[in-house]
Amino acid sequence: MLTISPEKVCFIIIKAREFDAKVDPVEPDPASDGADDGEREILEDYADDATAEELRSVLTACNVDELADLVALTWIGRGDYDGKQWDNARGLAGERATAHGPSYLMETPLLGDYLEEGLSQLGYSCEDYELGHL
To answer: Most exposed among 49, 73, 112, 133, judged by the fewest C-beta atoms under 10 Å?
Structure first.
């Protein structure tokens, strides 16, 4: 059914949630060090943010079939389709999964939640994966 491994989707979910947790910087150019500001800078979204780059990197490394799976899972998790409509969602996602797939996914708010819900509707879980990697 999936051309992308559930473990890879779970890794993307973790990275997407880290990325979604980012907020606008309080101070665009902080002068203090991390220990002084309680490490709040980690949650702030800067142009050279490593979290965004890591998510972008894993998405751009996906082949067209894997990107189509991710888009279809997102649509299912968002409620555009349900798990029983996988073939329809996957077919349309396959037509639209192009070089813009990674950007589309990164610009989707709550991507991690949608992917997790999509996996769940197809009978997969990230529970075992997260326990071994967090």
So the answer is: 133
Q: Which domain holds residue 57?
A: 9-19+48-133
Instruction: Evaluate whether residue 59 is within a structural domain.
Output: yes
Residue 29 burial (10 A CB sphere; 0-12, 13-18, 19+): exposed
Domain assignment of residue 73, yes or no: yes
- How many domains, the chain? 1
**DSSP calls for 29-61:** S--S-TTTTTTGGGGB--TT-HHHHHHHHHHHT
H-state helical runs in the chain: 6-20, 50-60, 64-78, 86-96, 101-106, 111-121, 127-133
120 against 132, higher pLDDT: 120
28 inside domain: no
The larger pLDDT score, comparing residue 108 to residue 26, is at 108
